[in-house]
Amino acid sequence: MVLGVGAAGGALYLAGWRQPVVREFRVWAALKTDVTEPQKAAVRAELGRIPATDGVKYTSSAEAYARTKELMESQNMTAYLEGLDADSMPQSFELITTGTEFRCAQLAAVRALPGLSDVRVTMVPTGKRPGGPVAC
């Protein structure tokens, strides 16, 4: 009996069946420069409907600029900072969700909201698997 179970498992493995890998997906939503507080609250609330590992995080324009500046300076790419300031960086919301795939239908209601300029989804890289953009 044990031999039969092992043979069946080996046959499934050789046939290409693998346990689905749970991955992390980063959802980033940039806000328009003229976004109102009620619009911002609506975007946060709608993003909050997506199961997130650590909740929905807000990043102000100043925080986005500081993060970009730090990254560019650490990679000796300060020339790219010319002409940039905090006002040129968008406010945004970000969340991390997990799953074997990302269901883009979750974003339909978010994309329909006013005050939003862009929504992007990326698969987070792991030690063994690359990441990349998810076309939604």
UniProtKB/TrEMBL annotation:
It comes from the Bacteria. InterPro entries: FtsX_ECD. It holds the Pfam family FtsX_ECD. Residues 27-119 form the FtsX extracellular domain. This is FtsX extracellular domain-containing protein. It comes from Paractinoplanes tereljensis.
